[in-house]
Amino acid sequence: MLTFITILSAYLIGSIPSGLIIGKTFYNIDIREHGSKNLGGTNTFRTLGVKAGLTVTIMDILKGTLATSLPFLLGADVNEMLVGVIAVIGHMFPIFANFRGGKAVATSAGVILGYEPLFFVIAVIIFFISLYISKYVSLSSMIASLLAFIYSLVFHTDDWPLITVIGLFTIFIFYRHRANIKRIIDKTEPKVKWL
After folding, report:
1. Is residue 195's pLDDT more than 70?
2. How far apart are the first and last CA of the chain?
3. What's the rounded Cα separation, in Å, for the pair 59 and 44?
4. Of 129, 146, 132, nearest to 181 (Cα)?
5. What digits encode the pLDDT tens for the residues 106-156?
6. Is the CA virtual torsion 172, 176, 179, 184 positive or negative?
7. Distance between CA atoms of 179 and 160, rounded to whole angstroms?
8. What is the pLDDT of residue 38?
9. What whole-number distance in Å separates Cα of residue 116 and Cα of residue 118?
């Protein structure tokens, strides 16, 4: 029963629609009606600005971190990374926002932060290096996830829960960015202007 409560809680935490909350509460805007119509941090940056974008990104990261901490907090005998996957699924398909959520990047990063902070730092560095070079948030997210998966294979050979979950996150992220991939190929994907 405790395992079920932990998994359900992780999904509900992941389902908290940070972008929708910030947009409607402080700007009276539903960001799902603007830009990419996505609830994540990137669309919040584009639609509402840097302050809102940073707030939503941090909230989405912390959702993953909190969910990953639930087995410890609740004393449940369930793998932290499994619980993290459930939170990411909640983020992508949130019950509180008609199952229209984000693209899994920030919440996946939050899961990694909760499980192994150094790994999180490395992924963030890779993301920003790629962003500096390419100016594409979507491409940088995909590159960071792919290199994180390779990193887990090389340096965490015995940690199969981590390898499996990072592999799933990579699949999630690439799948959720399939429209972005097409736009990158067509050279119509928006670039960041502040870096």
Report:
1. no
2. 48
3. 12
4. 146
5. 999 999 999 999 989 999 999 999 999 999 999 999 999 999 999 999 998
6. negative
7. 31
8. 85
9. 6
